[in-house]
Amino acid sequence: MAGPTPLLLRARVVLPIRWPPIAGGGVVVVGQRIVTVGTWRSLRSRFAGEVHDLGDVVLLPGLVNAHCHLDYTHMAGLFPPQKHFCDWIKLITTEKAHWTFSDYAEAWLDGANMLVHSGTTTVADIEAVPELLPDVWTATPLRVISFLEMTGVRSRRQPELILHEALEKIEALPAHRCTAALSPHAPYSTTPSLLQRTAALARKHKLGVTTHIAESATEFEMFRHARGELFDWLQRNERDMTDCGRRSPVQHVARAGLLGRNFLAAHVNCLAPGDATLLARQQTSVVHCPRSHDYFQHPEFPYRSLTQAGVNICLGTDSLATVQKTPRQKIELDMFAELRAFAKAHPKVSPEHIVQMATINGARALGLRGQVGELKPKAFADLIALPFTGRSGDSYDAVLAHPGPITAGMIDGDWTVSPGG
Questions:
Q1: C-alpha angle with apex 191: 188 to 193, nearest 5 degrees?
Q2: pLDDT digits (tens, 9 = 90+) for 215-270
Q3: Domains, the chain, with CATH or none
Q4: Chain centroid to CA 75: how far?
Q5: Residues 41, 45: Cα–Cα separation, whole Å
């Protein structure tokens, strides 16, 4: 019985990411996987199949969004930036209390659609409403890793019960392109016991873990010095504060055993001496969300310290609840907007390295190295095309500057955005 017919994609420039741009390039896809990448002349002489000449485009792997909250897409513009981080937490907590299951489902699906049309093919999504799974998975072509959010401070629920329910949910989910993992929300909204038990459970079941950590100066002050507005607010709400005043947030999660190759630290804006080295030594990746960072006016993201230590840094969108919006402005989940925001804040970082943060670095952080985020044999056929009429040497600059929707997109060898509309 004959296998799938090869699909030959031709582009002005092919951008494999891990290798130099290929002028007059092509990609051969069979089924869900890439077979090979090279010049169009060499591929056309070796392969027969269905040909798609994409024209004047740069063809590159789909972007990897390593931190998102699809549930909150419809909260865009609801909350103006607040003076204190705690005030924002109170606002979103109050708003969530009014939302229905349908509200979350519609927001999730709209957010996923935004990502598909703006070039994301893989997303790490923090799932606050696990009841949405797996139905929302089947409604999107995206490759989703749903990190089930866990807290426990306000509810006073036992860590064993929280984790039992999360694992029960994960094990009940059907085999799918999408998968699930664990997300203790943040050190300040969880207990040390939950963090420790999450680390042990993740190792036992080979699960990924992500946590918001060292995001704000007030969180850093809470853990390092046992003071500040976050410390005072949580103390008034009867959180046990005996885990504060001893170490930085990074050191706090390290002590719980969370750091490791399967752990993705979200934000990490505030470092104590030695924190960057600790993250690097444990092979923990960090995801930075530039537009969210701007919204909160957090301390400068320590890009240089982290990269010098050898930490893998990737990019994410966070949620639209934390993107500044003017009254007439329409904002969307868009990794290209995050690329531009990062470039503006870090003008000395090359376009090539910035694009790598949204592709191969994100793939590595999510345990998908060699599978997504690059064009190579045996990788998933997750690709996007952007309009491009320049020279191959300018392709990274063009990706960085790209506005608006993509020209074409593919996930698992199926078109998600058809060429030519």
A1: 150
A2: 999 999 999 999 999 999 999 988 999 999 989 999 999 999 999 999 999 999 99
A3: 7-62+374-417 (2.30.40.10), 63-365 (3.20.20.140)
A4: 19
A5: 6
